[in-house]
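Retry 2 of 3 after timeout on previous attempt. Resubmitting structure tokens to design endpoint.
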């Protein structure tokens, strides 16, 4: 790999600090605090690699020159160190030429072109470290590595070798690490006597006060058994067979994991790599791994090939056995992205389907629930079929019912409705002998499978097997539907009522039942049943068939509910039919309509109620009732007018005797302070009585003849004795007496006296009639008064006015008017 990178740098000596353009003096001074290095005793070069924030490292060289110490620093990014893979030679070469200190700004230094650290070079340095430094004691070598990985770090005390030997030691240590973490093995070949550093490996003199693990070089001491506790160290110890090549191969295997660990520290990364390497070895050997380890491997960095299949196969078996959703999702998602793995594990699933279909169903369902796809839905359907087949053939009734319930409750998107349908039909024959299974099939079909429901309801053997409460209501339409509701739920309750309504079994429809089915009809309570048994079908059956089979209380309850919830469609269907509705119910309906101010229902109810009022024989009771009606109708002028119109028709059909009693009853109520509209009723009643009094026992034809006679007599009297513009009155008393006497023989004496009385009373009547007639005034002329009476624009004030008014009506002068408008 070619790395022609330009690196920033700076130099520090007695004559001050000089930096390259992209490093500020402040940053340089801050970075120097992380460094602990000094030249060798003879002033030769010492080297160190120190960590900085933000994935940066500071490669440092210290040496003596011209009586002072010079510190050269190069800023190296982690990517550069990863590319070098532990090869320190290119970094050392950056310091071959001393940095010039006679400039204000330093130019960047360029990394020479080079190749990555080879496996052969790594082995050379690891061989040297093992054979020479550790004296072929691998445990001692691991003790140094463990101390370097520990938070305290490693200090080699009184190492005799020069800088090159110390760098060789560091390179051997780097060879023990995977490439991805080698940059984190920071070091100092000559630690400063008085400055501490977090570098992991330092060389220093004996006697320096430090918290590090110390290995005295003369004795090659192992710092402490504690340094062997790190998982990576333990893993290398377990892998050691004396073959350095095999050890390097194992380390390279760990380097390939690209582990997804939250903590990217050296210790955490190596611990995860060691654990993963051990897991790979164990699963390859056929060991059963902890489930969390399986999940971690397949979730973070799934292996390839046979190793992936081994992990996935083991986790699949666990997911099936333990119904573990997370495990199922991990395996199925790997199957989605790896067709070869999918084919391999599909074979496992097919085998398990014959052994534990319920486990396979739970496994596949976890995948479909999270991410539904057609092929997984197909597998879910296969698992459901297999599970139902096993349950129906070998399981008890409860198992069959539970499986059917499970499938029935699955979302429609799972595509299991066909499986449910076939399962219900497959269990139908067995249900003939098992009441609980029969009950389960019926209730499931009601909610989920309308086609199966129709077949089950035609199966007499199955209906006979049903428990008594449900069986009687479905077979004979007998029993208590509310008990069905309590035991089996609203859907079964509605189906029972729908069948009862369609077959006109009214006994089941009590007021309480009507109230309950109404809740489902108006949607205040949810109910999921097949279309043929919907609540609106039940209500339609109760309203469209003139249900004489439905009891009176149920009908009245239905009417009341329709009025309360403003369902005019239902109300009018019932009220227009020839069904008997009690007076009390009509009063309640009228009161409810008044509360809601529903004009249409008020009119319909009034028509029925008026019929009931006509049947009241006691006049006082009738007037009380009419007064109550008016009190309920204060909000509606049209409704009050409807009552007035009914009263007009009603009174005209009554005999004279009752008209008098009604008048008396009205007078008594008016005396109690009641005003309009009872005033209007009495006015109508008075008009009927007056007209009947005028006619007497005559027919209108007979009355017309009498009027004609009366007119002729009155006309003769007027022409004889009334003055006119053409002649003056001529009345000679003696002559008139003589005329009467000459005709005395025509009248017996008693009739003569009667005629005398009639003349006198007729004169009085004519005088009185004239007194009460409408007269002309300052504003209206006499002809205007007559015209208004004739046209009906003015109501009569007396008999003369009435004659004129009736003349206008009979002659067609008046148009029919509604004189009873409610003001």
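Retry 2 succeeded. Sequence:
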């Amino acid at each position: 790999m070619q790395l022609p990178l330009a690196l920033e740098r700076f130099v520090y000596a007695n004559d001050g600090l000089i930096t390259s353009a992209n490093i500020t003096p402040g940053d340089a001074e801050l970075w120097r605090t992380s460094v602990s290095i000094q030249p060798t005793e003879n002033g030769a070069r010492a080297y160190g690699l120190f960590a900085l924030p933000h994935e940066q490292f500071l490669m440092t060289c210290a040496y003596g020159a011209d009586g002072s110490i010079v510190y050269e620093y190069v800023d190296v990014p982690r990517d550069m160190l990863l590319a070098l893979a532990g090869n320190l030679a290119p970094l050392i070469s950056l310091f071959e030429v001393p940095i010039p200190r006679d400039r204000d700004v330093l130019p960047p230094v360029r990394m020479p072109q080079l190749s990555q650290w080879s496996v052969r070079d790594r082995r050379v340095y690891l061989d040297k470290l093992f054979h020479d430094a550790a004296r072929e004691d691998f445990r001692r070598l691991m003790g140094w590595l463990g101390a370097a990985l520990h938070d305290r770090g490693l200090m080699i005390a009184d190492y005799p070798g020069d800088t090159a030997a110390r760098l060789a030691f560091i390179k051997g240590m780097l060879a023990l690490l995977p490439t991805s973490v080698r940059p984190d093995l920071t070091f100092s070949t000559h630690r400063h006597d008085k400055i501490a550093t977090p570098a992991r490996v330092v060389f220093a003199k004996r006697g320096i006060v430090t918290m590090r693990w110390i290995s005295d070089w003369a004795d090659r001491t192992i710092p402490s058994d504690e340094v062997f506790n790190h998982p990576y160290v333990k893993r290398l110890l377990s892998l050691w067979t004396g073959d350095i090549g095999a050890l390097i191969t194992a380390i390279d295997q760990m380097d390939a994991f690209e582990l997804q660990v939250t903590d990217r520290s050296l210790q955490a990364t190596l611990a995860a790599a060691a654990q993963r390497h051990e897991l790979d070895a164990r699963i390859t050997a056929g060991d059963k791994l902890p489930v969390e380890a399986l999940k971690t491997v397949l979730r973070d960095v799934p292996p390839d090939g046979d190793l992936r299949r081994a992990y996935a196969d083991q986790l699949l078996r666990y997911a099936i056995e333990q119904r573990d959703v997370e495990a199922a999702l991990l395996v199925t998602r790997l199957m989605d992205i790896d067709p070869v793995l999918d084919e391999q594990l599909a074979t496992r699933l097919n085998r398990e389907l014959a052994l534990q279909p319920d486990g396979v169903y739970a496994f596949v369902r976890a995948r479909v629930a999270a991410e539904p796809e057609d092929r997984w839905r197909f597998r879910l359907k296969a698992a459901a079929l297999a599970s139902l087949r096993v349950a129906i053939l070998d399981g008890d009734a409860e198992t069959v019912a539970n499986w059917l319930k499970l499938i029935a409750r699955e979302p429609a998107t799972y595509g299991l409705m066909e499986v449910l349908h076939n399962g219900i039909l497959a269990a139908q024959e067995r249900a003939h002998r098992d009441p609980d299974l029969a009950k389960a099939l019926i209730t499931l079909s009601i909610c989920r499978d309308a086609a199966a429901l129709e077949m089950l309801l035609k199966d007499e053997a199955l209906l006979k097997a049903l428990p008594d409460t449900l069986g009687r209501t479905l077979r004979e339409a007998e029993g208590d539907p509310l008990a069905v509701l309590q035991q089996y739920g609203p859907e079964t309750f509605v189906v029972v009522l729908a069948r009862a309504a369609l077959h006109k079994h009214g006994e089941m429809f009590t007021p309480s039942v009507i109230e309950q089915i109404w809740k489902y009809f108006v949607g205040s309570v949810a109910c999921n049943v097949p279309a043929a048994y919907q609540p609106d079908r039940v209500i339609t059956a109760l309203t469209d068939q003139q249900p004489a089979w439905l009891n009176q209380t149920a009908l009245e309850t239905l009417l009341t509910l329709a009025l309360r919830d403003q369902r005019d469609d239902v109300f009018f269907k019932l009220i227009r039919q020839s069904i008997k509705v009690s007076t009390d119910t009509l009063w309640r309906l009228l009161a409810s309509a008044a509360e809601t101010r529903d004009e249409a229902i008020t009119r319909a109810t009034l028509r029925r109620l008026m019929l009931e009022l006509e049947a009241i024989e006691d006049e006082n009771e009738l007037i009380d009732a009419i007064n109550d009606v008016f009190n309920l109708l204060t909000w509606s002028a049209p409704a009050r007018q409807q009552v007035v119109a009914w009263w007009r028709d009603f009174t005209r059909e009554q005999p004279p005797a009752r008209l008098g009693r009604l008048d008396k009853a009205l007078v008594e109520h008016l005396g109690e302070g009641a005003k309009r509209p009872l005033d209007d009723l009495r006015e109508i009643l008075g008009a009927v009585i007056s007209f009947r009094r005028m006619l007497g026992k005559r027919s209108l034809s007979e009355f017309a003849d009498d009027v004609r006679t009366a007119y002729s007599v009155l006309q003769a009297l007027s022409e004889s004795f009334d003055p006119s513009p053409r002649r003056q009155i001529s009345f000679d008393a003696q002559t008139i007496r003589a005329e009467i006497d000459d005709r005395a023989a025509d009248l017996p004496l008693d009739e003569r006296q009667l005629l005398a009385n009639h003349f006198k009373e007729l004169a009085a009547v004519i005088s009185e009639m004239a007194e009460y007639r409408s007269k002309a005034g300052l504003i209206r002329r006499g002809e205007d008064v007559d015209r208004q009476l004739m046209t009906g624009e003015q109501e009569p004030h007396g008999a003369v006015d009435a004659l004129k008014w009736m003349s206008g009506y009979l002659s067609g002068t008046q148009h029919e008017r509604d004189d009873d408008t409610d003001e």
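Attempt log closed. Confidence is low (pLDDT under 50) at residues 818-823.
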